[in-house]
Every structure is written in structure tokens, then in C-alpha cells.
Automatic annotation (TrEMBL):
<keyword id="KW-0813">Transport</keyword>
<dbReference type="InterPro" id="IPR038729">
    <property type="entry name" value="Rad50/SbcC_AAA"/>
</dbReference>
<keyword id="KW-1003">Cell membrane</keyword>
<feature type="domain" description="AAA+ ATPase">
    <location>
        <begin position="48"/>
        <end position="230"/>
    </location>
</feature>
<keyword id="KW-0406">Ion transport</keyword>
<dbReference type="InterPro" id="IPR003959">
    <property type="entry name" value="ATPase_AAA_core"/>
</dbReference>
<keyword id="KW-0410">Iron transport</keyword>
<dbReference type="GO" id="GO:0006302">
    <property type="term" value="P:double-strand break repair"/>
</dbReference>
<dbReference type="GO" id="GO:0006826">
    <property type="term" value="P:iron ion transport"/>
</dbReference>
<dbReference type="Pfam" id="PF13476">
    <property type="entry name" value="AAA_23"/>
</dbReference>
<dbReference type="InterPro" id="IPR003593">
    <property type="entry name" value="AAA+_ATPase"/>
</dbReference>
<keyword id="KW-0408">Iron</keyword>
<protein>
    <submittedName>
        <fullName>AAA family ATPase</fullName>
    </submittedName>
</protein>
<dbReference type="Pfam" id="PF13304">
    <property type="entry name" value="AAA_21"/>
</dbReference>
<dbReference type="InterPro" id="IPR027417">
    <property type="entry name" value="P-loop_NTPase"/>
</dbReference>
<keyword id="KW-0067">ATP-binding</keyword>
<dbReference type="GO" id="GO:0005524">
    <property type="term" value="F:ATP binding"/>
</dbReference>
């Protein structure tokens, strides 16, 4: 049986234009994640740029929203691409499946190639990819001159280097890319490298990125739609209006005084 080739669109990102909560699909408003303030009123979010960045405090629901969107694209809740098998979540709480079943989406057109990156499950996915690559190399060895040594080995890199190699290899084709705190293992210099990759993805016109981050350096990406998740839901915000930027600015202005004041509280 021949495989059907996925057609690429000539339209530019963003492809996912709008996500909203269908309240008729929610059975229990006291259950998580529907009890979160962001879902208390109407949840209806448009995506107006190829790169959307969501900021907010821990526990506000950023990761849950990303999980829900990933589910709409057909990605596994624990990370990966469409058709990728679930990996061990390492005990992390997954609530995106419940949310995605209650979400509706508007796509122009629907593009479900791409990747859902979760820092918590990166090593489980990397281990799976490494094993798959080695198995494939063994199968091809002696046929087309491939060797096991040529197979990628993400786990041989440091945490941050592994992230970047992974991003460079898998996050530049046409698709939708969802990043949940990609900065978690990246030094400031590596975050700058990630910004450069983000810029290439943006310039290609083929990639839609939806990302949650705590890193002001990533929030500063100039072409992004920056949204803050607070008690009133998602709202447009400037970098300078975020708590993350304010705290870092106060620290940089007077590092010693800032730390002493914090410890004295």
C-alpha cells in the first residue's frame, strides 16, 4: 500500500489562528484544569504572529494550555510529534488531554507537522530517538554504507548542548512547534543561540511557534506576540511590563542590594 504524502502549504505561518474553550464540552468545572482562573470566563485566544510567547507565574496554567494545543495538533501530551508514541512522563502531571478534548481550533490551513518540546521529558524522548537511530543504522549497515557511528546521539551532549542539537535538527521544517520552557537547561549564551534559531524559523515563514518561558531574553524576541497569563486570563503585554523583566532589571541595577533586600524580607 502506498503512503500518502503530506502536502505542504504555500501560506505563511501562523497556521493555528484561534483556540477557544467549548463550554458545552466541560463536565466538571471544579476539576483541573477547568478550575483555573484562565478558564473561569470565556477562553478565546487568537494567534496573530508566527511566534507567540506566553509568560506567567508557576501554576498559572501555561503548560496546561500548551498541552491542550499540542493535543489539537495530534502531539503526545508528554512531548514529541504527531504519531510519536507516549514516553515516560517521569511523574509529571499531564492535564492537556482533558483540555484538548474541550478545545476548538481554527486553522488556516491545518498543519500538524512539527514538534511539542517539554524539558521534563527531553531525555526520555532523546533516549528513544537514539535507540531508534541505532536500530536503523544497524539495519542499513552494509547496504548504503551507513554505520552505527553516524547515528545521532543526543545523550552524549551536555543538557544544554543536547537541547540545541535537537532543536537544530528537528525544528526548522514546515509545521507548528510548541516549546514549554526551552530555557530550562540553557545558559544565557545558549539562550542567544536559541534566539537565532527562533529567528531563522520565523524568517522561513514555514514555522509557527507557541512558547512558554520565564526567560526575559527569550521574551524580548522582537516579532513575537507576547501574552501574560494572569488572573484575568491571557492579555497582551510588553516585555517591560512583565514581572520577570522588572525583577531582572532591579537585580542588574544593584545585585548586592537586591539580594540583601530579598534575604531580609
Amino acid at each position: 500500500m502506498s503512503r500518502t504524502r503530506r502536502r505542504q502549504t504555500t501560506l505563511r505561518a501562523p497556521y493555528l489562528r484561534r483556540v477557544w474553550l467549548d463550554r458545552s464540552r466541560v463536565e466538571d468545572w471544579e476539576a483541573y484544569p477547568f478550575c483555573l482562573p484562565v478558564f473561569r470566563d470565556e477562553f478565546d485566544q487568537s494567534f496573530d504572529a508566527a511566534v507567540t510567547i506566553i509568560v506567567g507565574e508557576n501554576g498559572s496554567g501555561k503548560s496546561t494550555i500548551l498541552e491542550g494545543i499540542a493535543g489539537l495538533a495530534g502531539f503526545a501530551s508528554t512531548g514529541g510529534r504527531k504519531g510519536f508514541q507516549e514516553v515516560d512522563g517521569g511523574g509529571i502531571e499531564i492535564s492537556g488531554d482533558e483540555l484538548s478534548s474541550a478545545l476548538r481550533a481554527a486553522w488556516v490551513p491545518k498543519v500538524t507537522d512539527g514538534w511539542f518540546f517539554r524539558a521534563e521529558t527531553f531525555f526520555s524522548i532523546a533516549r528513544y530517538l537514539d535507540r531508534s537511530a541505532v536500530d536503523a543504522a544497524h539495519a542499513m549497515e552494509g547496504v548504503f554504507g551507513a554505520s552505527v557511528q553516524e547515528a545521532p546521539d543526543y545523550l552524549s551532549f551536555s543538557h544544554g548542548e543536547g537541547f540545541l542539537v535537537f532543536f537544530e535538527e528537528r525544528c526548522q521544517k514546515q509545521g507548528i512547534y510548541i516549546f514549554d520552557e526551552p530555557e530550562s537547561a540553557l545558559s544565557p549564551a545558549r539562550q542567544m543561540d536559541f534566539l537565532k534559531l527562533l529567528h531563522r524559523m520565523d524568517l522561513s515563514g514555514n514555522c509557527q511557534v507557541i512558547m512558554a518561558t520565564h526567560a526575559p531574553l527569550l521574551m524580548a524576541y522582537p516579532n513575537a506576540q507576547l501574552l501574560r497569563l494572569g488572573k484575568y486570563g491571557l492579555e497582551p503585554v510588553t516585555l517591560e511590563q512583565t514581572d520577570h523583566y522588572r525583577v531582572m532589571r532591579e537585580f542588574c541595577d544593584d545585585p548586592r542590594g537586591f539580594v540583601e533586600a530579598t534575604l531580609g524580607e
